[in-house]
Every structure is written in C-alpha cells, then in structure tokens.
Amino acid sequence: MTPKWRDRQALADHFADHGHELEAITIEDFEASALDTIRVGKQFTYTDRGSGRQHIGYYDRATGRFTGTSSSGRRIFTHFRPSSGEDYVRRLPNQTYDT
C-alpha cells in the first residue's frame, strides 16, 4: 500500500508551502520526496499537535526530511525539512523516535 495525500489540492498546498525547502521543482518531485522519506526514514509515532491524534512520522537524518502520516500509514499529512532538524522530531509530543 502506497500512502496518498488527502487529495490533489492538499498535495499542491503543501508543495506551495514546502517545495522550495526540498528543492522540488514539480509537485511530482515533492510527492516522490515524501514517499522516499517514508521508505528510508526512521519510523516512529507521535501525537499531532493540531488534532491530538496519533500519527506515524518518518525522519531521514541524511536529508533532514520529515513526513507525517495517519496512524494507519495510508494518508500523508505533511512533508517538509524542519529548520531545527532532528530536534524538531525530538520535541514532538509523545514521540517514540528516541526509543
């Protein structure tokens, strides 16, 4: 099962917000970057600050990329390169990154 964005508009909005951080030229590049982060990043769980729901996160230390998905892993919610890098991940509520 390949995770998907909620819809094309959600993907386009995130690309507009974060594509430049990841040097993504196209929406397709941005989506591929998110999927690659899921594939190679360290998987962990955390509580989303906005919804209070548990999510699955993936952080790729080599590239500094972070991708957040639903707890089922089916829906991609966010993808970006946090300015504080790994410290961002360590500050997420209830994260299991360090375990």
What would your notes on this structure say?
By secondary structure, this protein is α+β, with helices and mostly antiparallel strands. The protein has a single domain, classed as Nuclear Transport Factor 2, Chain: A. Helix content is 30%, strand content 27%. It has three helices and five strands. The protein has a five-stranded mixed sheet with strand order 1-5-4-3-2. The longest helix has 14 residues. The relative contact order is 0.20. The mean pLDDT is 96.
Quick summary:
This protein is an alpha+beta fold and 99 residues long. It is 30% helix and 27% strand.
Give the helices and strands, then pairings.
Layout: E1 4-5, H1 8-18, H2 27-40, E2 42-47, E3 54-60, E4 65-70, E5 75-80, H3 86-90
Parallel strand pairs: 1-5
Antiparallel strand pairs: 2-3, 3-4, 4-5
Briefly note the CATH topology name. Nuclear Transport Factor 2, Chain: A
Determine the mean pLDDT: 96
- CATH class, anyone? Alpha Beta
Count the domains. Answer: 1
Strand order of the largest sheet: 1-5-4-3-2
Radius of gyration over alpha carbons? 12 Å
Order of helices and strands: EHHEEEEH
Strand pairing plus helix content: what structural class?
alpha+beta
Strand content: 25-35%
Beginning-to-end CA distance, first to last residue: 26 Å
Number of helices: 3
Q: What summary fits the major beta sheet?
A: 5 strands, mixed
> Uncertain regions: pLDDT < 50 for 5+ in a row?
none
Tally of strands: 5
Q: What percent of the residues sit in helical stretches (DSSP H or I)? A: 25-40%
Mass-distribution shape: globular
**Gross CATH architecture:** Roll
